[in-house]
């Protein structure tokens, strides 16, 4: 009661207006949600969008109503709700205003003029350089130091303004204002003003006092405020799409028409497979399965008979086979040499950092560029790889008087070697990265263990098996699982190296490549989403298996 | 004795270590070396077999009496290797022999012999007879074969001539470089614009991501608020989810807000990452709390603490994350491929430009590899500059898992 009497009339008025505002907000949100279904608002929006918008509006409406009640009771939760709702609406209006003014799309225009502004960015860099310079001044010349600091600040600011003018900031602002002058743009500007006002009104400390706010509330508010840019972006561009992806996998979405719910049909098609006994190894597929539905994927031959494996979607199973084969070879090929190399690098000889940097190089270069380079290295007639093979064979033939024939491998155009060519590139590229990871793991093993083993008379080999490997188990798990997760997503290597990307006779079609082809070339996006979830299950399953393997083997951890 | 053999063993051991390391270093470096040297070659030089690493140009020389410089070749004159200039090519040479003794051949220029109307039957075939001068006497001979040779002259003394097959002659070559390949590929494929786009996208993604993950990571590490730990666990759980899971719905989202074909679609979704926030949180949580509490008592706001105390003290962590993000944004391919139309070349990033170049310049590896170098070299420079932070932090992130 005592606090009540302290409230000045202005704050009292603000709180009353805020209560009314919360009521209006609740009613408007509710009206919007109802209008969405029974009115002409967004008539062509797909179901998921309507459901989403309704849910958001309904929640906003309910909370706003609660907020109104709580503010009238002078309860601090009313302030929280009010601030949260107004903040979200405020941010939404800003984003809508920016998007209506085509600020985001305008980045393209910036790219056009960006190079012409580079000299002025040079001035900014010069200013920065000056500001760093002042650290070298001795303490006595304090005057010189501050004047230098001021000068450098002005130089940086001036350079940046010149840069903005050069890249067409004025033109851009005029264009932005022109675009903003339409109903949606003006509405969003009005929204910014209204929500901004109420943010200020409820946020000011007098209102906070009037609503009995406790000291830790400021921390709660700034916590959510600091997290909000990241969290909102994360919800819109990561968590939301993830849920949508799950929804799409149950629809026939094609990116243009409204998606229809198809239940498990996408998954059923992927998993629709048949095994059939073959009476002879060369028996035709049409004799044992219905080839209107099923395509032959492969056959397993045992002596005179065999089993035919056919699937409704043969490309998926070919892609799964290739992806798993890829992982089966690429992972050991990039992990085992890395383990050996890291042990060699761990010998504390001079120059090891240099080698470490060299090994790291391939993993930072663009896969697209790397694949183009290897494409020419793999060239069957003029490529270096075949040239080295030829040299090697000539050398051995001369040395031992043999007559081994030069195979002249057609690396990328032969279906037997195409996938292997991709495996080699991937192993080459990830090996250095894995080496650095292993090296870090090795440096964490206490040296006393080795000393004790030496005293006990253990040789280097014993030490490797009994100390290094078990102590390295957590690192090994990390390396193997990340390499596997990466390997299961192989796409860029095949896309660039192979022409067409699926390779000769589909020998390099991978899951992500098939996902891309389904979703963005055939525009079966619902089906592509289902493939994505199957891929996720494959990755998750493999990681889980490795995790359990690691738990079993890392007895030394405890 | 024993000490000596121990030393020898140790020396051999060291030598073996360096041998193994150097071998692998060569394997790692060779493709880059090949890319660089090939990008400076002439097209014809790239298709040579056996392949050579260094770019070479055929040498030429100006000879009195000729307007154009003449190409130089290795020519054998009187049993000696000499460098002669090719003055004339496609000179026809015939091999002639008497009809009764086809083994006794003589070589003559075709325009030095006179064809006659007479024929002679050799092994059941009618062969035309030619008047060939041998040792000052005119002899009737048949033509056995005909080739073409080039006339090579001594550049210092054009009177000294030699004749031999041009195709089988080794041209004199000198190591050279053709940096104009880079300007050509820039014009051919709009690589300039692609480079600008990539740089712009990368800069904005790096700055944006640093901003959101620094304040987000600070909130996770230092501020207490209900729901924080739930959200954090939620963030952690999504780190393992591969990006391809999102590609379809994210594409539809971009269609919805009209960002397809625009650079904004390559920037905005990448600004908010769970992983970056996680890394920043891990970094800030190691920071001593006392400094912050003291600053709070002095009346500093949270934002002031962040910008004036925490950020200046976190330069290595920020540099590491910036380098990671730089590489990711610079090298990304599948998302630009999905979102930017093949025809919309002005919004292509480098990886997309390379994909187009691959088809457009498939017969000129020098240009393709110059394009690849444009895409690969900037990250390499960033790596060399930030190597110290970068490699160490990869190592530590791996250990922490």
Q: What is the helix/strand order of chain A?
A: HHHHHHHHHHHEEEHHHHHHHHHHH
Give me the CATH architecture of the largest domain in chain A, please: Orthogonal Bundle
Do you know the CATH architecture of the largest domain in chain B? Orthogonal Bundle
Classify the helix fraction of chain A into a percent range.
Answer: over 70%
Which homologous superfamily in CATH is the superfamily of the largest domain in chain A?
Answer: MetI-like
The level-1 CATH class of the largest domain in chain B: Mainly Alpha
**Unreliable runs of chain B:** none
Instruction: Report helical residue fraction of chain B.
Output: 40-55%
Structure description:
The complex is a heterodimer of chains A (about 550) and B (about 400). With about 550 residues, chain A is mainly alpha-helical. Chain A has four domains: about 1-105 and about 180-250, no CATH class; about 110-180; about 275-310, no CATH class; about 315-555, MetI-like (MetI-like fold). Chain A contains 22 helices and three strands. Chain A has a three-stranded antiparallel beta sheet. In chain A, helix 2 (about 10-40) runs antiparallel to helix 3 and helix 3 (about 45-70) packs antiparallel against helix 4. The radius of gyration of chain A is 33 Å and the shape is globular. Chain A starts with a helix and ends in a 5-residue tail after the last helix. Chain B is an alpha+beta fold and about 400 residues long. Chain B has three domains: about 1-55, no CATH class; about 55-175; about 190-360, MetI-like fold (Orthogonal Bundle), CATH 1.10.3720.10. Chain B contains 14 helices and ten strands. Chain B has helices at about 1-40, 45, 180-190, 190-220, 230-240, 245-255, 265, 275-285, 290-295, 300-315, 315-330, 335-340, 350-360, 365-400; strands at about 55-60, 60, 70-75, 80-95, 105-110, 115-120, 125-135, 135-155, 160-165, 175.
């Amino acid at each position: 009661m005592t606090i009540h009497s302290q409230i000045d009339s202005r704050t009292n008025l603000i709180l009353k207006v805020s209560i009314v505002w919360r009521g209006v907000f609740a009613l408007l949100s509710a009206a919007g949600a109802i209008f969405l279904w029974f009115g002409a608002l967004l008539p062509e929006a797909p179901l998921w969008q309507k459901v989403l918008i309704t849910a958001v509006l309904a929640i906003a409406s309910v909370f706003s109503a609660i907020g109104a009640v709580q503010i009238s009771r002078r309860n601090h939760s009313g302030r929280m709700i009010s601030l949260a709702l107004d903040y979200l609406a405020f941010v939404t209006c800003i984003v809508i205003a920016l998007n209506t003014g085509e600020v985001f799309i305008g980045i393209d225009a910036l790219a056009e003029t960006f190079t012409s502004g580079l000299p002025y960015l040079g001035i900014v860099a010069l200013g920065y350089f000056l500001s760093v310079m002042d650290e070298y001044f001795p303490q006595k010349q304090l005057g010189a130091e501050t004047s230098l600091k001021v000068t450098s600040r002005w130089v940086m600011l001036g350079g940046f303004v010149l840069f903005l003018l050069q890249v067409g900031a004025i033109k851009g602002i005029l264009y932005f204002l022109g675009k903003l002058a339409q109903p949606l743009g003006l509405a969003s500007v009005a929204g910014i003003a209204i929500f901004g006002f109420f943010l200020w009104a409820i946020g000011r400390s007098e209102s906070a006092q009037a609503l009995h706010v406790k000291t830790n509330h400021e921390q709660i508010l700034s916590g959510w405020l600091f997290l909000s840019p990241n969290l909102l972006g994360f919800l819109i561009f990561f968590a939301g799409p993830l849920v949508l992806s799950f929804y799409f996998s149950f629809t026939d979405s094609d990116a243009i028409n409204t998606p229809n719910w198809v239940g498990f049909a996408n998954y059923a098609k992927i998993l629709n497979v048949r095994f059939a006994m073959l009476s002879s190894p060369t028996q035709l597929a049409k004799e044992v399965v219905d080839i209107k539905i099923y395509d032959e994927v492969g056959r397993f031959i045992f002596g005179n008979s065999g089993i035919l494996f056919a699937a409704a979607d043969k490309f998926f199973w070919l892609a799964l086979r290739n992806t798993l084969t890829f992982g089966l070879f690429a992972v050991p090929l990039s992990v085992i040499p890395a383990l050996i190399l890291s042990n060699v690098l761990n010998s504390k000889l001079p120059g090891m950092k240099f080698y470490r940097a060299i090994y790291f190089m391939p993993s930072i270069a663009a896969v697209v560029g790397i694949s183009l380079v290897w494409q020419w290295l793999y060239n069957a007639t003029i490529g270096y790889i075949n040239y080295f093979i030829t040299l090697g064979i000539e050398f051995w033939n001369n040395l031992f008087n043999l007559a081994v024939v030069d195979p002249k491998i057609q690396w990328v155009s032969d279906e037997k070697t195409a996938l292997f060519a991709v495996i080699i590139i991937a192993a080459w590229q990830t090996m250095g990265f894995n080496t650095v990871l292993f090296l870090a793991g090795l440096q964490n093993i206490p040296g006393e263990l080795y000393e004790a083993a030496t005293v006990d008379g253990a040789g280097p080999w014993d030490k490797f098996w009994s100390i290094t490997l078990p102590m390295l188990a957590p690192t090994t798990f990390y390396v193997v699982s990340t390499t596997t997760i990466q390997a299961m997503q192989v796409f860029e290597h095949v896309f660039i190296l192979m022409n067409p990307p699926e390779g000769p006779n589909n020998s390099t079609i991978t899951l992500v490549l098939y996902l891309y082809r389904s979703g963005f070339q055939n525009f079966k996006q619902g089906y592509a989403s289902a493939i994505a979830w199957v891929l996720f299950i494959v990755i998750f399953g493999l990681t889980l298996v490795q995790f359990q393997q690691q738990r079993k083997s890392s007895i030394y951890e405890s | 004795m024993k000490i000596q053999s121990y030393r020898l063993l140790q020396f051999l051991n060291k030598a073996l270590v360096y041998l193994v390391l150097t071998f692998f270093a060569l394997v790692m470096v060779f493709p880059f070396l090949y890319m660089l040297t090939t990008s400076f070659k002439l097209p014809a030089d790239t298709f040579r077999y056996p392949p050579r690493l260094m770019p070479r140009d055929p040498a030429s020389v100006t000879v009195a009496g000729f307007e154009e410089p003449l190409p130089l070749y290795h020519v054998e004159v009187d049993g000696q290797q000499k460098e002669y200039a090719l003055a004339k090519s496609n000179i026809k040479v015939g091999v002639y022999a008497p009809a009764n003794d086809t083994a006794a051949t003589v070589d003559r220029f075709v325009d030095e012999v006179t064809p006659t109307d007479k024929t002679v039957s050799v092994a059941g075939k009618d062969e035309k007879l030619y008047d060939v001068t041998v040792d000052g006497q005119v002899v009737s001979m048949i033509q056995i074969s005909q080739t073409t040779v080039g006339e090579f002259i001594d550049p210092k003394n054009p009177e000294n001539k030699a004749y031999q097959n041009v195709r089988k002659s080794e041209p004199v070559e000198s190591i050279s470089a053709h940096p104009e390949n880079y300007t050509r590929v820039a014009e051919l494929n709009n690589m300039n614009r692609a480079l600008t786009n990539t740089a712009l996208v990368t800069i904005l993604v790096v700055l944006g991501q640093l901003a959101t993950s620094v304040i987000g990571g600070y909130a996770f590490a230092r501020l207490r608020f209900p729901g924080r730990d739930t959200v954090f666990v939620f963030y952690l759980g999504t780190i393992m989810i591969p990006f391809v899971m999102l590609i379809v719905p994210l594409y539809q989202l971009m269609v919805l807000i009209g960002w397809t074909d625009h650079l904004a679609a390559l920037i905005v979704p990448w600004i908010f990452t769970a992983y970056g926030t996680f890394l920043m949180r891990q970094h800030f949580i190691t920071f001593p709390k006392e400094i912050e509490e003291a600053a709070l008592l002095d009346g500093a706001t949270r934002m002031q603490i962040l910008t004036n105390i925490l950020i200046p003290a976190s330069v290595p962590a920020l540099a590491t994350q910036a380098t990671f993000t730089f590489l990711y944004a610079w090298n990304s391919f599948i998302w630009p491929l999905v979102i930017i139309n093949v025809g919309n070349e002005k919004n292509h990033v480098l990886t997309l430009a390379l994909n187009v170049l691959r088809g457009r310049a498939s017969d000129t590896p020098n240009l393709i590899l110059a394009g690849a170098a444009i895409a690969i070299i900037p990250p390499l420079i960033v790596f060399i500059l930030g190597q110290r932070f970068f490699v160490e932090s990869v190592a530590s992130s791996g250990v922490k898992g």
